[in-house]
Amino acid sequence: MVADQAALDAVIAAFAAGTGPVAVDAERASGYRYGQRAYLIQLRRAGAGTALIDPIACPELAPLGEALAEAEWVVHAATQDLPCLAEVGMRPQRLFDTELAGRIAGFARVGLGPMTENVLGYSLAKEHSAVDWSTRPLPEPWLRYAALDVEVLVELRDALEAELTGQGKLEWALEEFASIAAAPRPAPRVDPWRRTSGLHKIRRRRQLAAVRELWQARDRAAQERDVSPGRVLSDAAIVAAALAMPVNLPALQAVAGFGPRAHRRQLEQWLAALDRARAIPEAQLPPAAAPHEGPPPPRAWAEKDPVAAARLTGAKAAVTQLAEQLKLPAENLITPDLVRRVSWEPPADLGTPAVGAALRALGARHWQVDLVAPVVAAAFAEAVTAT
């Protein structure tokens, strides 16, 4: 493991002098630690070999990122790893995402193991995929496992590039990769507590407030202790407490997830969260549904706007059929949200150029517009005729 400045300087020099693409991977400690920071970064490049970097001991890796600025990064499932790499100063200018390449090429299973086996004929060991990568020192078998994730990544990239070229899809994939590399860091999620598993069981706004207060209290505790929130209090326990709304410690202990072994101080902080929810004025309670931009849920379209519902039904069917013909997932052909938005608020002119411009304005890539706009425009015209 590279865990000091001298070793890191040597790696930077070696990888700057290397040639060709650089394979990049990161290991997080999801389920163990708070947040999604990287606890191990793996690199491999021709002429430089493989490096395993400890980003906790070496938290400032911008010089390494600068040394790799001209190289194409090969990453599997880039949207998962790029945020934690950006936190330490590493951002690609050019990218090849082997998972996304597999999707566009039409592979049914696009995990790194299945892709490596199907495309290259190698079987990757995956026995350490769910370990706690914040462990120090990292055991030698874990390090070997981590190194394997970048060992054949460039070879996989080359094979997928040939496959995409043969299918006439390489330019589609390259445009997708460029979009991912250029994308800004995502904005913080609005009302993240609404992602609590089991929230659909909650019917009353006061109970929603209890979920929010418990979730926020759990998040603060998890951040202070640097542990995964689920290890502090489960989602199921939060929902159960919100449904029961216990008013004292014995009643809280009777709720599933708050058993007799819970520390009294912990129980008191959960009860305090419930008390805060009880004290919120009615007018300040959270709304039953999350605020959102864009069209209403599709299930309401038939009543609100039957013509829009017909447009959406036709557009979805057309996109699905086209995706099957092209042998790629419909959600990669065009984001479903874009289809909903353009179906709800279509351009005044329903011809292909206007529909294409509307999709492009919503964020669709050029290759997607070229393929999708004609079939969506035809579906819109058919919906108008039918209604």
Automatic annotation (TrEMBL):
InterPro entries, alphabetized: 3'-5'_exonuclease_dom (IPR002562), Exo_C (IPR041605), HRDC-like_sf (IPR010997), HRDC_dom (IPR002121), HRDC_dom_sf (IPR044876), RNase_D-like (IPR051086), RNaseH-like_sf (IPR012337), RNaseH_sf (IPR036397)
Molecular function per GO: 3'-5' exonuclease activity; nucleic acid binding; nucleotide binding
GO biological process assignments: nucleobase-containing compound metabolic process
Domain HRDC residue range list: 204-284
PANTHER family: RIBONUCLEASE D
Protein name: Ribonuclease D
